[in-house]
Amino acid sequence: MKIIHHGIKFNKIIIELITSQAFFIITFFGNSFILIFSYIFYLLEQEANNKITSYLDAVWWAYSTATTVGYGDIIPVTVIGKILGIILMLSGTGLYATYTALIAQTILADEMIRFRKK
User: Fold this and answer.
1) Cα 60 vs. chain centroid, distance in angstroms?
2) Where on the phi/psi map is residue 72: left (φ > 0), alpha (ψ -120 to 50), or beta?
3) Could you report how far apart the first and last alpha carbons of the chain are, in Å?
4) What is the number of domains present in the chain?
5) DSSP state letters, 3-43
6) CATH code for position 13
7) pLDDT in tens, 18-58
8) Residue 69, Cα to own-chain centre: how many angstroms?
9) What are the contacts of 2-11 at 24+ separation with CB within 8 A?
């Protein structure tokens, strides 16, 4: 029964986190940044890169680059496209590290509150 109680409490903490203003701001600006870079990448690479046949291809490239998954199915061929890729890799690392820190802070804050009550 104790495990179920902790699971329900954990779910409540996560729901509060993803509905928080900080989470919304990070998500909104992070995704906007990636989508803007997708569009710029699409404009730059559509003629030069035969792997870019639609804007969705550019979005796929931008998210896989920002998350550092980098499948390698789409590779920039222009110099500016490669520079955009580098910027996305660096900013994506920061963006997802911020998510990780926010989640860790939320969970640890709850643990500290529970620890102090004992």
Assistant:
1) 13
2) left
3) 20
4) 1
5) HHHHHHHHHHHHHHHHTSHHHHHHHHHHHHHHHHHHHHHHH
6) 1.10.287.70
7) 999 989 999 999 999 999 999 999 999 999 999 999 999 99
8) 11
9) 9/110, 10/107
Amino acid at 39: Y
Judged against a pLDDT cut of 70, whether residue 2 lies above it is answered with no
Alpha-carbon distance values, 99 to 24, 48, 62 (Å): 11, 35, 18
Mean pLDDT of the region 65-70: 90
- The amino acid that residue 95 corresponds to is L
DSSP letter at 75 equals -
The Cα 96–Cα 67 span in angstroms is: 7
Host domain of residue 100: 2-117
Instruction: Evaluate if residue 115 carries a pLDDT over 80.
Output: no
| Segment 25-33 long-range contacts (CB within 8 Å, at least 24 positions apart) | 26/95, 26/98, 26/99, 26/102, 30/95, 33/91, 33/95
